[in-house]
């Protein structure tokens, strides 16, 4: 049966949401503190159980202590907040300069995001890396959706006796590509959720805006037949929205207490989704508003709902045994 | 003003003052504070580690794991050069504050 100290430390570990190395150090320090105090209280004549209980009481409730430690450790410096906001700022600049049609530039930006993500992954994923990870997933996620749409259309044509537009080999490649890309996107996201659902939401932050922009592109004839002039008129809105993402991200990183972080993310994303719908389509009643709002809500709600099912933070089994 | 409130505003000064004498680990700090203040200060233990970690993040102290005389591995907090400088400023501020308070109280 786990000791009272072990249960206490497990509770702290679950609430700390720190990187494994820092979390282990904090837990070890707290465990040593309680052990020292317990020994002293035992020397004063208290029974062991009572001594542990009193030592834990003096250290305070796990929720308060973990909350205070989380606020200290999770508050990023201005440099880290800027680094985390950088990919959003780069996309704001891309739209402000009307350069989103430049395939080499967009490819270079997404490749840079992938490079930074890989670098961060190898260094244990520092907190600033999560927004970069989001842009790293943009190309695989949307290419996966397009592959799925192509396969579905092809299958529909085939079963209705029509000639599908692509060769059989191309469909085979797409069918193989979809599960690979699905695995990559989901496993990356799940890894972020296991660390902290807040970071998973930051990974997914650009998706409602990119989805709404792609819907706007679709309304204007699609990727290869767009009305450049009409879309460029929306570039100011796009630039402002990505700038908004950068501000929301910087606030989430700069705030210490978790309630402030959650408030910044919730209010910021909610405001940006409304601005996207109003800015792009002119009114909220438009039918395209529904998918955007749904994607926005999913980003906020899915990680927090999944965190419990996926085992929460990686720290549940991190409490040192005594 | 309660002792707890007074302590809250001076935690950093008290911690740096203790650590300027010798590096200490968390529980040792609590005991040393109690001893040096003749039992007047019993640092709320729940605030000790957040305060130490904040000071570590601000570069005022440095945490180093080393073996205690008991043979156990402990995180010892060492005051840094920035911490020494901050402490000097705090002590100067404290002296001016205490002088001003006593002038008003005794007048």
The spatial strand order of the largest sheet of chain B comes to 1-2
Integer average pLDDT of chain A: 84
How many distinct folded domains of chain A? 2
Greatest interface by residues involved = A-B, 21 and 17 residues
- The proportion of residues in beta strands of chain A is under 5%
- In N-to-C order, the SSE pattern of chain B is HHHEEH
Overall average residue pLDDT of chain B = 88
Structure, explained:
The complex is a heterodimer of chains A (322) and B (107). Chain A is mainly α. Chain A folds into 2 domains: 4-71, no CATH class; 77-312, no CATH class. Chain A has 14 helices and no strands. In chain A, helix 5 (78-96) runs antiparallel to helix 12 (235-254), helix 7 runs antiparallel to helix 8 and helix 12 runs antiparallel to helix 13. Chain B has 107 residues and is α+β, with helices and mostly antiparallel strands. Chain B has a single domain (3-106), classed as Arc Repressor Mutant, subunit A. Chain B has 4 helices and 2 strands. Chain B has helices at 3-19, 26-36, 45-57, 81-106, and strands spanning 61-67, 73-79. Chain B has a two-stranded antiparallel sheet. In chain B, strand 1 (61-67) and strand 2 (73-79) form a beta hairpin. Chain A binds chain B through residues 25-26, 28-30, 32-33, 36-37, 58-61, 64-65, 68-69, 71-73, 75, and chain B through 25-27, 44-47, 49-50, 53-54, 57, 65, 72-75.
What key phrases describe this protein's structure?
heterodimer; A: 322 residues; mainly alpha; 2 domains; 78% helix; elongated; disordered C terminus; B: 107 residues; Arc Repressor Mutant, subunit A; 4 helices; 2 strands
Provide a quick synopsis of the model.
In chain A, 78% of the residues lie in helices and 0% in strands. By secondary structure, chain A is mainly α.
How is the topology of this model organized?
The complex is a heterodimer of chains A (322) and B (107).
Chain A (H helix, E strand, L loop, with lengths): L3 H13 L3 H24 L4 H12 L2 H13 L3 H19 L6 H20 L7 H30 L8 H28 L1 H8 L1 H14 L8 H6 L1 H20 L3 H24 L7 H21 L13
Chain B lengths: L2 H17 L6 H11 L8 H13 L3 E7 L5 E7 L1 H26 L1
Antiparallel strand pairs in B: 1-2
């Amino acid at each position: 049966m786990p000791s009272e100290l072990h249960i206490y430390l497990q509770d702290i570990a679950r609430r700390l949401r720190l990187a494994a190395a820092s979390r282990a150090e904090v837990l070890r320090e707290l465990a040593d503190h309680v052990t020292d105090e317990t020994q002293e209280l035992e020397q004063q004549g208290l029974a062991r159980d009572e001594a542990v209980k009193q030592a834990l009481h003096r250290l305070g409730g796990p929720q308060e202590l973990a909350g205070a430690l989380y606020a200290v450790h999770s508050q990023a410096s201005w440099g880290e907040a800027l680094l985390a906001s950088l990919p959003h700022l780069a996309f704001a600049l891309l739209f402000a300069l009307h350069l989103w049609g430049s395939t080499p530039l967009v490819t270079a930006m997404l490749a840079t995001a992938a490079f930074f993500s890989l670098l961060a992954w190898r260094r244990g994923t520092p907190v600033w890396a999560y927004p970069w990870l989001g842009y790293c997933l943009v190309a695989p996620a949307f290419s996966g959706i397009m592959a799925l749409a192509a396969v579905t259309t092809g299958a529909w044509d085939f079963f209705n006796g029509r000639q599908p537009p692509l060769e059989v080999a191309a469909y085979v490649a797409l069918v193989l590509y979809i599960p690979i890309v699905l695995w990559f996107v989901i496993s990356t996201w799940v890894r972020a959720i296991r660390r902290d659902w807040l970071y998973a939401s930051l990974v997914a932050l650009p998706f409602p805006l990119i989805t709404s922009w792609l819907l706007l592109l679709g309304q204007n004839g699609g990727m290869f037949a767009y009305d450049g002039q009409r879309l460029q008129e929306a570039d100011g809105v796009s630039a402002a929205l990505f700038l908004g993402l950068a501000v929301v991200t910087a606030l989430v990183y700069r705030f210490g207490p978790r309630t402030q972080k959650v408030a910044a993310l919730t209010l910021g994303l909610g405001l940006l989704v409304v601005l996207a719908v109003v800015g792009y389509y002119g009114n909220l009643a438009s039918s395209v508003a529904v998918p955007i709002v749904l994607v926005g809500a999913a980003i906020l709600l899915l990680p927090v709902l999944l965190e419990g099912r996926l085992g929460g933070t990686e720290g549940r089994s991190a409490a040192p045994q005594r | 003003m309660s002792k707890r409130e007074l302590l809250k505003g001076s935690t950093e000064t008290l911690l740096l003052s203790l650590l300027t004498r010798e590096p200490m680990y968390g529980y040792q700090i609590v005991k040393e504070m109690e001893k040096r203040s003749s039992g007047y200060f019993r640092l709320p233990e729940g605030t000790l580690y957040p305060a130490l970690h904040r000071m570590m993040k601000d570069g005022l102290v440095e945490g180093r794991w080393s073996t205690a005389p008991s043979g156990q591995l402990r995180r010892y907090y060492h005051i840094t050069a920035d911490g020494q400088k901050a402490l000097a400023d705090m002590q100067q501020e404290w002296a001016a504050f205490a002088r001003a308070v006593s002038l008003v109280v005794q007048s």
